[in-house]
């Protein structure tokens, strides 16, 4: 085509054609974007199965173990997508961490917790729900664990899709219970333990909410409502950081490091007290230096709580990785051992490659699917700032310690989300209390209409109902799904 052929009308046609191609390309990218994360997750699941096949070689039990590795990788992805939001959500919602920073920190500390101090797998495989000997043969035990693993993974996946943070531990417990009942009858289930778990549906969030609300009340009364907020912060922020450091030290020793360091409750609390006192003394000059030049207003206080909040999120992730990775690798390790040895009643050990599937699966799940739940937990239930998020994180650690001391089976998921609810409801109560006080001192204060007061609620009631329903349904739903899957799987000869 010569230059004289490129008349304006030809150029317009060419521009329109190029524009159509650009729009088509943009549309293709927009449509394909939601498929990227599931595709990467699918590749990870396939690689987990291939790794199991390569490690086993030509052993006869290979098909069973490969299938179990695939289910375990799928469960680990779902744990990362759902459970980790409880640790990182408050820090992200308070703007102390970006979403990218939260994902990086959580991935590192979750993996470190899983690999360095992975919890005893027996606590997840059986949980005292169904005794292995109640399942007659190794084949029945293998299919029961396979059904429990797949059912719990499917349920957690569904909960993540609808935006409900649920307890993966309860999902696995429900899966084991359902498969156990399908394989050995109702009598095989320890109903006392199940009633204790059902009670924790109420105990966990209530305890978390009360403790978080108590600390928020303390911060408001001792710092926020004071005339000289900065002077009050210089006194109390080191104390609060010391309490957090001591609490997390005891928490990590009791929950996250129990496989490396065997200590009693008293020793853990004494260690926490010593570390807390040390951090209190260190933070006194640090807080004075940080507070220099700060304006006497609430926004300035956020600076003093930012670093402790990030540290607490990292420590919670380490402890979570050490404990809840067993929800994915526990049944998988039991299947591997039973398939290879035929022994399903003794203690179960976790091979390194199984632990790696759990650790990397949680990290991939968090990176690929975690932001949705992190945003919901961090900002959509109630508005969080660094002070409120600090109360949530500290409440999670304290409540777990109290529950361990009392022997109560509680869920870290329920505690963290309950703490967020507690902070939000306390803010509502405190705002209402201050409004009533203003009316008493200033009789001419304008009355707020009922509709406007409902719009000003600080906790979204829809999330309360959605999350509460998901919590209640988790165990029975996972149990029913697991029972159905067990009845299907047991038809396959081992």
Automatic annotation (TrEMBL):
Record keyword Transport present: yes
TM helices/strands, residue ranges: 35-56, 62-80, 92-119, 139-159, 171-189, 195-219, 231-254, 260-282, 303-322, 350-369, 389-406, 412-429, 462-489
Keyword rRNA-binding: no
Major location category of this protein: membrane
InterPro entries: Phos_transporter
Family, per entry: Belongs to the inorganic phosphate transporter (PiT) (TC 2.A.20) family.
Protein name, as recorded: Phosphate transporter
